[in-house]
Amino acid sequence: MNDLADFHHLLTDLFPQPKTVEDWDQYRLSQEQIAFFNENGYLSDIKLLDQDQIDALKKALDEVMDPTHPQHHLFHEFHSNESGDPNKVLFHSLGHWRIAEAFHDVIWNPAFRMAASQLLGDRSVRFWHDQLFCKPAHHGGNVAWHQDYSYWTRTVEMQHLTCWCGLDDATEENGCLQYVPGSHCWGLLEKPALAGDMNGLMAMMSEEQKANFKPVAIPLKAGHAAFHHPLLVHGSFANDSGHSRKAFVLNVFADGTISDSDEPLLKGVPVIPKGEKMEGKFFPLIFEKELESGKVEKW
């Protein structure tokens, strides 16, 4: 069976591609949205998926969550319950784009790619890695307050972006994202255990940061996404509701990011020596911009 990371093009017809520059206009963020992102460190309620796409991704999710899947070895990480507490389950994985066509092709979703390029400063964009986060009804675990880049310091410079997209409606009751607006300006903090003590990060904050720690809930309808800065403090509370909370995450960085480690950047990925550009099979270029100002060259 194929490793889908070998294919840097669409494998299905789930995500039709625009043909002209004008076709892309429907996906462009406004200057007001970009300004909000720059000030607050996040932008939410961006529609990425229609119902058919949601259904296809949920079907694929149910398949890849099975630890007996024949391509299970292609995951970079797979945690049936990262929390370790059977009463607070947090399914978390990395690498499912290598296994399921729907998750492979969502990386080339034009709505996602256009927004990612704009929020990275109209840059060319490379894929970093994907994630699944699933909280079952009644006993779904939390994701501790953290900054994504605290886990990614093996790459430089910091020019990364995260996109979180729900496959179920995400509500405060079932553990939606919580963002701390403006915290992307706090600098890099130490990394906590991702599924550990919700407030583990608090011990690493200054008194000023604690005074400005004012989270806001980010409820989202299924198929809608939130984008956030790599230093934005965020997390999510446990799911004690009667509804599951399934979501996938796409992490990207601006083209030109380099390795800052002589160790594997992800399990199963060949070493990219420190100082060399992040590229190749596992880090495909998904959106390319011309050097000429603002003109799209290639999709």
Automatic annotation (TrEMBL):
* Needed co-factor(s): Fe(2+)
Cross-referenced InterPro entries:
Phytyl_CoA_dOase-like
| Signal peptide interval | none
The cross-references to SUPFAM superfamilies, in alphabetical order and at most eight, read: Clavaminate synthase-like (SSF51197)
Q: Which Pfam families match?
A: PhyH
Q: What is this protein called?
A: Phytanoyl-CoA dioxygenase PhyH
**Species in which this protein is naturally found:** Algoriphagus jejuensis
